[in-house]
Write a structure and sequence with these properties.
The structure holds two protein chains of two kinds. By secondary structure, chain A is mostly helical. Chain A contains twelve helices and no strands. By secondary structure, chain B is α/β, with parallel strands linked by helices. Chain B has two domains: about 210 residues, 3-Layer(aba) Sandwich (Rossmann fold), CATH 3.40.50; about 70 residues, Alpha-Beta Plaits, CATH 3.30.70.100. The C terminus of chain B is likely disordered.
Chain lengths: ~260, ~325
């Protein structure tokens, strides 16, 4: 146990070092989601969005929950990229030839992606705060937002790592990634509530776990505990099923690659 | 240093992918304290074999043991005993040399103080002390290779595996690597390496196994293998392309007493002889007698190239580009 902790920490430390030395990448990782989506998109659609429809004082406050979950989505789906590169350049093999527990590599990646995502969520909420978005449920609400975000992130990171282990080339990986991420966003309640969608989109969005996550985060920011708690419970159930499926698939792909 | 004990035993090893057999029925023994080379062209199955031995790939059938421990069922024990030096690209460009070693120190659970001390020694051994705290992307190919070797040595392994240790290196770095490898052998370490360089196999390895199309063609020391061919080589380049004249020349040469074998090819003849000092003048005489124009003559001691051609039927460079070994190899 103690050995495994040492392994996971050493490997996580490596991810942190890598990120801190890729200054550009770090800047974009942290700044991009809030800049593009929250500020640009939020301001752009401020007038176009019907306040009646979104049921929020302004569009940015409606959008905040969506951007938080989008960040989880993007980080999660990209979570396997570094392992993909490790696989391609042989670093993974070097690690696998050492007597570490096979799961340590995976756990280090979860830990790292979750930590980065949590930080980004806090930055986004901070920026939203500057636009007068004050989470109704306070600090405890923020903690719950982080928790739900992490729960969603585990499943997404598993999908990403499973892909990293099974794709033939990183070209394939990025194609699938690009193909997945935008539809996931548009076919969810991130940008507009389901009620504003055409029927067929509603159905698809209803099947998208991201919708359930956003619908739990949004009342935590906009309305308060009373509206949030039932949504949180539903989201947790949905995510437990989602994570179980993703972890199963991820474990299978991992076993196939490294045994 | 028990010089005759078996360090690695491989019996009937097979590895097949969906529609491709990388290794078929491969058996070999590596003795403790020797430098053992797996020699073959790209895609011959040497990297696959190496990966099975370092436990990162499972064989389809057959078994392999490292110091008596099975690479599949006792993989964890095997990993404690070996060090692995992958090809040069397997380096994290954003970490410094020292950080690579510290990371591995944690993964092998070396006590912190011991790790720090050992890392300093290793950096000194491979002459990287001055560059230890620079990120690896600033390293030259030779420096990366040195770091690789230091990484492979960190766990103080009984057996060190090197995958193409001098691929893409300049001459000086190459000689350095050879030098390290020899020193490690002299300290009693067993070394297994893959290579597709004939001269490397010849000069560095105590014994080699020639692998081609997933099978071992022959195993032995370079010296034995060369001596096994029998005789020295003489190549005649003939200016006369007329097959009839050629055939007559071959006939004449066959009559000579010290000729072992003759091989005809497009440009002339490859002949193996026992006594070159007698054979050469006799060959000159034969060519002039037949009236064949001689464009060139080359005499050489038996080379590993000849061994390779004899046992695989082609030269080592023939296939190097025909197989894409990136994903499968």
């Amino acid at each position: 146990m103690q050995n495994q902790i040492q392994e996971v920490l050493a490997l996580t430390n490596r991810w942190v070092k890598r990120l801190s030395r890729e200054k550009f990448s770090m800047l974009f990782t942290l700044v991009q989601p809030m800049l593009f989506w929250l500020i640009f998109f939020g301001s752009l659609f401020q007038r176009a969005a019907d306040v009646q429809l979104v049921q929020a004082p302004n569009y940015i406050s409606f959008l905040a929950a969506g951007v938080v979950v989008m960040t989880v989505l993007n980080n999660g789906l990209a979570g396997g990229v570094d392992l993909l590169f490790d696989k391609e350049n042989g670093f993974l093999e070097r690690l696998m030839a050492t007597p570490i527990r096979r799961s340590s590599v995976i756990l280090s990646r979860f830990l790292f992606v979750m930590a980065i995502t949590a930080m980004q969520i806090l930055v986004i909420l901070g920026v939203a705060f500057l636009f007068d978005v004050r989470p109704e449920t306070g600090f405890l609400g923020i903690a719950v937002i982080l928790f739900i975000g992490m729960l969603f992130g585990v499943g997404l990171t598993s999908i990403s790592m499973a892909m990293a282990f099974s794709v033939k080339s990183h070209g394939d990986f990025f194609s699938v990634l690009g193909f997945l991420s935008l539809p996931m966003i548009f076919l969810s309640s991130a940008l507009v509530p389901l009620s504003a969608m055409p029927g067929w989109m509603q159905t698809l969005a209803w099947l998208n776990p991201m919708t359930w996550v956003i619908d739990a985060v949004r009342p935590l920011i906009l309305t308060g505990w009373e509206a949030a708690i039932p949504q949180i419970l539903i989201a947790v159930v949905v995510l437990l099923v989602f994570d179980a499926l993703c972890l199963y698939g991820g474990a299978k792909a991992f076993k196939k690659t490294v045994g | 240093m028990a010089s005759s004990s078996v360090a690695i035993e491989v019996i009937g090893l097979c590895k097949t992918y969906d529609n491709f057999t990388a290794v078929k029925d491969l058996s070999l023994n590596v003795q403790s304290g020797e430098i053992f080379g797996l020699l073959g062209p790209n895609g011959a199955g040497k990297s696959t074999t190496l990966r099975i031995l370092i436990t990162t790939l499972k064989p389809t059938s057959g078994r392999a043991t490292i110091l008596g421990h099975d690479v599949v069922t006792e993989a964890d024990t095997v990993r404690q005993l070996i060090g692995y030096v992958p090809q040069e690209r397997a380096i994290d460009r954003f970490l410094t040399g020292r950080e690579h070693l510290l990371l591995l120190g944690d993964l092998y659970h070396l006590p912190k103080e011991e790790a720090v001390k050992r890392i300093q020694e290793l950096l000194k051994l491979v002459d990287l002390e001055d560059h230890a705290d620079r990120v690896a992307k600033t390293y030259s190919g030779g420096m990366k290779r040195k770091l690789d070797i230091a990484c492979g040595l960190l766990p103080n392994p009984k057996i060190l595996f090197l995958d193409e240790p001098t691929l893409g290196l300049d001459v000086q770095s190459r000689l350095n690597v050879w030098d390290y490898v020899r020193r490690l052998r002299d300290q009693g370490m067993t070394i297994v390496m893959t290579t597709n360089y004939l001269d490397e196999a010849d000069q560095l390895c105590d014994r080699i196994a020639i692998i081609d199309e997933g099978q071992i063609r022959i195993t032995g020391s370079p010296k034995e293998l060369k001596a096994g061919l029998g005789g020295d080589g003489i190549s005649l380049t003939l200016g006369d392309a007329d097959p009839a004249v050629c055939a007559r020349l071959v006939e004449e040469i066959e009559k000579l007493p010290f000729i072992r074998s003759i091989r005809t090819h497009g440009q002339g003849l490859d002949i193996r002889v026992d006594a070159p000092e007698k054979a050469l003048p006799a060959l000159f005489e034969a060519t002039s007698q037949v009236g064949c124009r001689l464009d060139g003559i080359e005499y050489h001691r038996p080379r590993l190239d000849d061994v390779f051609v004899t046992y695989t039927g082609h030269s080592i460079d023939d296939q190097s580009t025909s197989l894409t070994s990136d994903t499968a190899g």
